Known about the structure:
Elements: H1 15-22, E1 31-33, H2 49-62, H3 64-68, H4 91-94, E2 111-113, E3 118-120, H5 122-132, H6 144-156, E4 165-167, H7 183-198, E5 205-206, E6 213-215, H8 233-243, H9 257-268, H10 303-308, H11 312-325
Parallel strand pairs: 1-4
Antiparallel strand pairs: 2-3, 5-6
Amino acid sequence: xxxxxxLIAMLTVAAATTAMMREGPAADVPQLDLAEWxxxxxxxxxxxxxxxxVKYGYALFTDTPNQIGPAAADPAKRFSRxxxxxxxxxxxxxxxxxxxxxxxxxxxxxxxxxxxxxxxTLEERINGCxxxxxxxxVMPLDGTEMKAYLAYMKWLSTGIPDGAKLIGxxxxxxxxxxRAADLGNGAKVFxxxxxxxxxxxxxxxxxxxxxxxxxxxxxxxxSYNNGAGMTRVLTAAGFVRHNMPFGITFDTPVLSxxxxxxxxxxxxxxxxxxxxxxxKDFPNKLQKPVDTPYGPxxxxxxxxxxxxxxxxxxxxxxxxxxxxxx
Length: 326
């Protein structure tokens, strides 16, 4: 089971926009089903300056360890501290629906994000991925690598209206079991379904040549750190259910919702790098997702419940606290 490691919140929209979408999109907001959209082929990118940047951006996504990871020839460009690739998360170089696709993301920024408590740029979002999902550090905003990432995302978004409601963006949610995750069952599902690719300890399988992985680690020192979006059990469960084992798509799931929920919890119970200063995330704690696995929280539920559920009692309490502040 080849699990994404990149930060799942790439296409999260502003809190106000999210509320509007729950009521249904406005009549003048275009909608696009990414499952019915044909992205451009990298072979069609030109050799003009923009096309060259697009091709470099594609290389950054598909050959990350050699380009900006531990194996980069220039030590100053080793922005990622892991040997993961961006497409371990954004499957098929960012073109698979419900696998955090990049198609259309260009037109979704600037965007409010509760984790930072402010409106952020796409550049800041990319650097957030590097710091958390790749356990690295930021790239210069005016550097060639950042420009290449942006060019690739803009190119993949060709023809998609800015601000469109993208069906197939981010990940597809699961139907929650309404209970705490069963770590024992999660370990069994992992052994039966995931270990053949990711290893019995979740440490991945190295590529035959080069510094990267054939199947990425889901735990250990070369995995995403504990501040990444994939450490949220509902986020990870949605990705697993609709993309794993590797090769399936959202409309051909293999695991049940409950098994995906349990195996995601097992995966995130394993040790991984620790990111400092996570207490600074979500200045407004009422905007903190209920499955964020680190505090502080606005409510009094224990950290274990935020990590493994059940989540409905937390939601109800957060809604009560939010209502009291109005």
